[in-house]
Amino acid sequence: MIFFKKHTILNIVTVITVTMFFSCKDNFKEVQKIGISENEPIGVADTINLKYTDSGRVKAILISSKMLDYGNRDFPFTEFPEGIYLEVFDEDNNKSVVVADYAISYSKTDLLDLQGNVKLSTYKKDTLFAEQLYYDQNKEWLFTNKPVIFRMGFDKINGKGFDSNSKFTNAEVLEVDGLITVDE
Questions:
Q1: Number of domain units in the chain
Q2: Is residue 26 predicted with pLDDT exceeding 90?
């Protein structure tokens, strides 16, 4: 009789233990999200001055008065709601400058969306003005389908889109009109 009670108690304890073991689940990520709204950024930075270096050489300087980090989203991004000022340096240390009223950078696609009074000035004094400009960081490619003004020297080219590599070696203004100097 004592053996039967011990056996029954052992079986009950085993069943409860196995049930508890299989009912547990990994919800660590959910616990981390407690107190964090998915609509709120996980990080806020005020007055940033970020210097990006590679092999001891400054490649870019990013200045912004506010940065919001939404890395907690399924499609993470970083937002600059008060605009950016970006200096980019090439291999010869020539500086190009990008200014925009608003910017958003998507981590998964490495796409940078610049909006509102976008101005891109190269060290060659070429200047691009646009209301919106995209930059694909992987392909080092600039593009937009919005109206643009592209100034090269004395030429002022208006268009309804723009497509170029980051060095402007094959810049193309789409649906062109404006003043263009032609050598005869």
A1: 1
A2: no
Question: Is 97 in contact with 121 (CB distance < 8 Å)?
Answer: yes
Q: What is the DSSP string of 85-153?
A: EEEEE-TT--EEEEEESEEEEETTTTEEEEEEEEEEE-TTS-EEEEEEEEEETTTTEEEESS-EEEEET
Query: Is 78 within a domain?
Result: yes
pTM: 0.73
Quick count: other Cβ atoms within 10 Å of Cβ 86? 22
Residue 125: which pLDDT band, with cuts at 50, 70 and 90? confident
Query: Where in the sequence is the domain holding 170, given as residue range(s)?
Result: 40-179
Whether residue 97 lies inside any domain: the answer is yes
pLDDT at position 29: 62
Q: Identify the three-state secondary structure at position 6.
A: helix
